[in-house]
Amino acid sequence: MVQQIPIDPGSLADEPAGPDGTHTLRPDLAYQRHVLVNVAYLGPPGAGDRGWVLVDAGIMGSRRAIEAAAAARFGKGARPAAIVLTHGHFDHVGVLEDLAEEWDAPVFAHPLERPYLDGGGAYPAPDPSVGGGFLARLSPLFPTKPVDVGTRLRLLPEDGSIPPLPGWRWIHTPGHAPGHVSLWRAADRTLIAGDAFVTTAQESIYAVATQAPEMHGPPRYLTVDWDAARRSVEVLAQLEPELALTGHGRPLRGPGLREALHRLAAAFSAVAVPEKGRYVAEPVRAGDAAAVREP
């Protein structure tokens, strides 16, 4: 059974979707849910061509919805300055190749994600034994073939900057994936956490459908290094974010967000880490040869 930390409903940050199909969180930050995953749009409405950035690239079949939202929000024909990835799991790069080609856009990611984005290798296999939910049991059927945007791939600079996003920095938050990153804007304490932590029980198809707000560690079936995942949550909790958008679940803000995130960090081993599992017994560390398998 997946453990969880309840969230005060007053901490929910999302507003009803606007006419462009996105939920506005900041004047220059909106998100859109695609079945089971969120993508973020960074840039003010009407930003125009190359005036905005897409964070993550949804699941297979979401291309038209993303293109339509971008056109409505930023202007017809408005291409992003870049696509920035928190990591390369299938539900975050589902239409990456199509969008990068259509928009002729560079793709920024952590160096440790490179094999999964240039066709060189695949992630370690999912572990369906953890999580206890239907999505966890289905995880061996999830797409594992790496995408290939090698000609457009740009590695995030070592200094933590994000070239197309002045004012934002990337933070290496491994555990769920070797090169997983979260995006942080200190000026207003806004966090795009990817899957470092999530706000729904992603293993459960019922929870994914209802989006009941709960604080969870990263999705269990694809997390390969639980010690690193715990440290990543501790790092993010120390930031004391005012607003957090995660890859799965509804965004949170304010004291309720911070309280739940600190509780997750303090009790991570008890509420997030499975009692048993392939990667509990044999973690795959960032940079290990085992982190990349044949595609």
UniProtKB/TrEMBL annotation:
Residues 1-25 are annotated as: Disordered. Keywords: Hydrolase. InterPro entries: Metallo-B-lactamas, NDM-1-like, RibonucZ/Hydroxyglut_hydro. Residues 36-248 form the Metallo-beta-lactamase domain. The keyword Ribonucleoprotein does not apply. The keyword Chloroplast does not apply. Pfam families: Lactamase_B. One of its GO terms (molecular function) is hydrolase activity. PANTHER family: METALLO-BETA-LACTAMASE DOMAIN-CONTAINING, METALLO-BETA-LACTAMASE DOMAIN-CONTAINING PROTEIN. This is MBL fold metallo-hydrolase.
